[in-house]
Amino acid sequence: MWRTGWRERLQNLRSLGLELWRDKAGFTGVVMIAALLFMALAAPLLAPHSPADQDLMARLKPPVWSEKGTWNHILGTDHLGRDVLSRVIYGSRVSLLVGAAVVLVAGIFGTMLGLIAGYARGRADNIIMRWIDTQVAFPGLLLALIILAVIGPSLITVIIVLSINGWMVYGRMTRSAVLSVRETAYVEAAEVLGCNSRRVIFRHVLPNLTSPLLTLAILEFARIVLAEAALSFLGLGIQPPATSWGLDVSSGKDYMFRAWWLVTFPGLAISITVLAINLVASWMRLISDPQEREKQFARQMAARGRKHRRKEAAVL
Amino acid sequence: MGRYIIKRLWHGVIVIFGVTIFVFVVTRLVGDPVKVMLPLEATIEQRAAFEKQLGLDRPIWVQFVDFMTALARLDFGDSLWQHRPAMTIVFEKLPLTLELAFLGIGLAFVLSIPLGIVASLRPGGISDRSTIFVSLIGLSVPQFWLGLLLIVIFAVQLRWLPTSGVDTPAHIILPTVTMALPALARMVMIVRSSMIDELNQQYVKTCTAKGLPIYRVVGVHALRNASLPVVTLCGWELIRAIAGYSVVVETVFAWPGLGLTAIQAIEREDLILLQAIVFTVAVIVVFINILMDLVYTLIDPRLKLA
After folding, report:
1. Which domains occur in chain B, in start order?
2. CA–CA dist A262, A76 (Å, integer)
3. In the prediction, which pLDDT does B235 show?
């Protein structure tokens, strides 16, 4: 069996890092996501207050840089005197948790069905693709509303509802990729050598789908962070004692005209998170698409050529 | 062509049937409609009477047959919240949602084509990069927050436009812009990338070589070939606007369309009204889907054979 040695892996990782460093937008995105992850994991250490601590004496305090602001509440307080900064820090947990959970559930389910459809073909393929086509044509959010209205909103329901709505893209993409990989010589060779279908799928087909699936998962992550925020904003997502950015924008909405910071900061947090993920996703698409890579490479070579010629001209 | 339309219509019927079964199963089997709709302190007698009123005490298959026959007559029963037929309310609110969705997506479509073309003329140039950057930001800002920001800026600070409601024509400006911006960001990206692909084709070189002015090469030859993905996305955006974004935008601006009514129905635990809304939107979505497929065959004659 062929395995990459750790030395080679390190080399690969280094060249990937170099490439990331060259793409400034992608690099910024990765750094921002790392910071967010740290914020979510270390929330109790970073937050100056507990997100649920009410202080009715210090209600609707503005951020520190305005006249009445205090260093005790850097981003101000809400209508119950809760610290906005702490709530923003804790809110990152919900967003990232829901995003990761939904990407995992929907991704695994969709990829599995896509693998089955693409590899088995025939009846299974037909049934699965019909199912996907029908569900894609469903008005997703409205069906989500019905489920939420009947079961009642909670963290778990949000994850379930968003997963039900989001697995089809993975299924479609995996199936079409499997259909093309199936015809390649190495899959045929594996079959001739007597690998059973499970081994062919997991050892020979799936590894070749990693990078498109990863790119899709990152894009979906961004979409889900936005969807969770929207559901929580509508009052159908995370419920009050818990914190979520969408929920905070919704409760700040009533005080919007007196206290602009209540809607601004959680909304900004959502935007920055999604922007960071989008930056990483577009970088991923660039490096994982061979055609794009070629363009990129050609551009670099051309630039290097120009520089070289200029140098020569300067010497002459 | 005729066979194709029939096939598409058939698929549409299956989707609507699927939605109905889904709604039926979720509301009757997964959840307990009586528990959702009656207050917690309701007595056993009240619950039984309510079950009888909704016909929930009968076997499930009788309920299903009843549900489907009532549906065929477009009769969902009376809304528990407003005490009048649910479909009447839906038809009252529907035009407002359609107006907002069509205006918003129309605005996005009209703006996305010139912006996308300008970006595509020099890939990697300054206008291209700034378009991508602005689009990325547009993709990342949550729509409800965008709406609130617009209210704060244009209604509260500048006092140019009303905050919410439907009283004057000026009331539709902010909701339309809020509806349009995220869609615009996505559409500009698609216009840009499909125009770049087309401008690299051989026929574009031929056109330029034979001396056609650049605006004809880009605006007529390349644009027509690049329009298929754009029209596809436009259809999708319209569907998403009606079946999804309208809920958010209407809630932010208190725009009394179907989306806001759906949220109010959930708050008042009125499953009957919610069912009627979901069913209506499903029919509209299916209808737009079929329409989109027909538009493709008009734009791209190659698809006619499929």
Report:
1. 2-72 (no CATH), 94-256 (1.10.3720.10)
2. 8
3. 85
CA distance linking residue B240 with residue A141, whole number of Å: 9
pLDDT at B140 over 80: yes
Q: What is the pLDDT of residues B59-118, one digit of tens each?
A: 777 778 877 887 777 777 777 777 788 888 888 889 989 989 999 999 999 998 888 888
Residue in B closest to A143 by C-alpha: B278
What does the pLDDT read at residue B278?
A: 85
In A, what residues contact B, Cβ < 8 A?
A: 133-135, 137-143, 145-151, 222, 226, 229-230, 233-236, 246, 249, 253, 256-257, 260, 263, 267, 270-272, 274-275, 278-279, 282, 299
- B144 with A233: Cβ contact below 8 A: yes
CA distance A164 to chain B (A): 13
Mean residue pLDDT of chain A comes to 81
Residue B306's pLDDT is what? 47
Q: What is the token pair recorded at B170? A: 């000026």
Which residues of A fall within a CB distance of 8 Å from B139?
A: 222, 274, 278
With a CB-CB cutoff of 8 Å, which residues 128-147 of chain B face chain A? 136-137, 139-145
pLDDT in the model for residue B142? 92
pTM: 0.83
Instruction: Enumerate residues 249 to 268 of chain B having a beta carbon within 8 A of any beta carbon in chain A.
Output: 251, 262-263, 265-267
Chain A / chain B CB contacts < 8 angstroms? 139
Mean pLDDT, residues A273-297 taken together: 78
CB contact under 8 A, A139 and B278: yes
d(CA A212, CA A222): 16
What is the per-residue pLDDT for A1?
43
Interface test with B, best of A146, A160, A162 (most B CBs within 10 A): A146
Provide ipTM, 2 decimals. Answer: 0.83
Per CB-CB distance under 8 Å, the chain B contacts of A161 are none
CA A83 vs CA A47, A59, A71, A90: distances in Å: 9, 9, 11, 11
Confidence of residue A67 (pLDDT cuts 50, 70, 90): confident
User: What does the pLDDT look like over A190-231, one tens digit per residue?
Assistant: 888 888 877 888 887 888 788 788 888 888 898 899 989 998
- Contact state of B271 with A150 under an 8 Å Cβ cutoff: yes
Distance from CA of A214 to the nearest CA of B (A): 19
Distance CA B280, CA B178 (A): 24
Question: What mean pLDDT comes out for the span A155-177?
Answer: 87
